[in-house]
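Long-time lurker. I teach an intro course on protein structure, and each term I like to show students one example going from raw sequence to a predicted 3D structure in token notation. This year I'd like something fresh instead of my usual example. Would anyone be willing to generate the tokens for the chain below so I can use it in lecture? Attribution to the forum is fine with me.
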Amino acid sequence: MLNRLALAALLLAGLGGLAAASAPSPYAGLADRPIKALSAEAVADLRAGRGMGLALAAELNGWPGPLHVLELADALGLDAAQRAATERLRAAMAAEARRLGADLLAEEAALDAAFALRTIAPAALEARLARIGALQGALRAVHLRTHLDQAALLTPAQVAAYARLRGYAAAPAPAPQGHDPARHNPARHGH
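-- Reply from a regular --
Happy to contribute to a lecture. Here you go:
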């Protein structure tokens, strides 16, 4: 009886291993992507200069972003000057984000090609990853700086109203006064 139980256990274990070996990889189908590491949605977001959650540290800590400020302009009571400044801020951010996104896509495509062609070497890999990392950091900085600049254009009451209107559980403290958006806005510096 014991031998039959042991044999049955071994048989079941073997069948389980076969099932696991034939299960599709979570990466199945991704090999057909033009840039293997990026989804079509990520590529589209980078091309369009969308936020992709890169500014959540700002957004969720009480620093409004221009896109949503413009969506809520009437409810926030933006005056004409605030609305125009916010539109300029959003346009400058989007242009810089699209430029950086295009550079990032080019670097990711080159990395993908180097692996596909089997021409990648450790030193080249490190250099390419450093460029990709720098671009990712620069892209995130553009989005985060824009939130700083946006908060400086609003009153503390508008910042608090923004948090409520966006549905955040507790309205964060208004942004500190004295932030100079011209100091951080790349569009104003010709970057």
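Some talking points for your students: The chain has one domain: 39-188. The two ends are 79 Å apart (CA to CA).
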